[in-house]
Amino acid sequence: MMFAAALAATACKDNKTADSVSTGTEQSAAAHSGDAYTIDQSASTIKWHATHKGGLNPRYGTVSGTGTLSADNGNLVSGEYTADMNTLLTDPAAVNPNEGKKSTDLDEHLKSEDFFDVASHPNVVFTITKVEDLAAGTEARLEGANKLVSGNLSIKGQTVNVTFPAKVDVAENELRLASKFIINRKDWGLNYKTEGNPADWAISQDVELDLNILAKK
């Protein structure tokens, strides 16, 4: 059961730093225009954070990937990021050695058919469908958030459109995007074992993602 915690999120609805997302059906990808920026994998991070309900046994780590973004007249307009789930890593500090398991054991468990089934679904893909200015007065827990980004998030063969606040800075030769938000694993049909199974019920439905992306011309 301690491994099942890896699909749960921190602090759920009471999280003070992560934003909630709004969800909808799959939308058309935004058209590329303006300048293209390639995501610098070595300088970009995607962190995940998960726990049992009630905050027990926190699990956290990283995943990496590749992608491109485009900006027109100083504004982010489109892009795509492909996370390679084979790169999923659990921070060793997230696993208590007294539990008799290592972080690599959790990595293997998450990549198995119990969760992401990486052998059949090696990638998680996010494709931008819309970028808007964050309206004045809109509540955002991310400091400095200035945009509202929408995109199709495809996980294990299921696609859901998500919208979240982000901080986007566009310069002549680089583009930075930061966001911290919570998704509900059930929106992608991510269940441990079967729907209604006590092992699945014991896992929080929320998953926190922390994005810090640097892209360069």
UniProtKB/TrEMBL annotation:
SUPFAM superfamilies: YceI-like (SSF101874). Residues 36-216 form the Lipid/polyisoprenoid-binding YceI-like domain. Residues 18-30 have a biased composition (Polar residues). Residues 15-35 are annotated as: Disordered. Gene3D superfamilies: Lipid/polyisoprenoid-binding, YceI-like. InterPro entries: Lipid/polyisoprenoid-bd_YceI (IPR007372), TTHA0802/YceI-like_sf (IPR036761). PANTHER family: PROTEIN YCEI (PTHR34406:SF1). This is Polyisoprenoid-binding protein YceI. It comes from Cruoricaptor ignavus. The lineage of its organism: Bacteria, Pseudomonadati, Bacteroidota, Flavobacteriia, Flavobacteriales.
